[in-house]
Amino acid sequence: MGASFQEVLSDLRRVKAVHLEVKGKPYLARTELGGQAYQGFQVAVPPRVVEL
Q1: Neighbouring residues of 38: CB distance < 8 A, sequence distance ≥ 6
Q2: Is residue 39 within 8 Å of residue 11, measured between CB atoms?
Q3: Radius of gyration over every alpha carbon of the chain, rounded to an integer in angstroms
Q4: Within a 10 A sphere around the Cβ of 5, how many other Cβ atoms?
Q5: In angstroms, rounded to a whole number, what is the distance separating the alpha carbons of residues 30 and 38?
Q6: What span, in angstroms and rounded, lies between the C-alpha atoms of 50 and 46?
Q7: Distance CA 30, CA 18 (A)
Q8: Quick check: 42 pLDDT over 80?
Q9: Can you tell me the distance from the alpha carbon of 13 to that of 5, in angstroms, rounded to the nearest whole number?
Q10: Which among 8, 14, 28, 47 could bridge 40 via Cys, Cβ 3.0 to 4.6 Å?
């Protein structure tokens, strides 16, 4: 049985992100998806660091 919508939302609220600048280029870095959030996005988990 899969996770409930509320379980996924609860785990997503724990994800943190920060804007970084490295050599003049902006990036967004986030913490790992945990618990049910990972299960909910397992097919298309976004990268932890993204150039903006």
Answers
A1: 11, 32, 45
A2: no
A3: 13
A4: 10
A5: 13
A6: 9
A7: 6
A8: no
A9: 13
A10: 8
Across residues 16-41, what is the average pLDDT? 92
Provide the terminal-to-terminal Cα distance of the chain, rounded to the nearest Å.
Answer: 37
Question: Two tokens at 35?
Answer: 């618990």
Cα distances from 2 to residues 20, 24, 27, in angstroms, run 35, 42, 33
Distance, in Å, from the CA atom of 39 to the CA atom of 52, rounded to the nearest integer, reads 26
Cα angle value 30/36/37 (rounded, 5°): 30
Bigger pLDDT: 34 vs 19: 19
Q: In this structure, are residues 41 and 32 in contact, taking their beta carbons and an 8 Å threshold?
A: no
Beta bridge partners of 25: 22
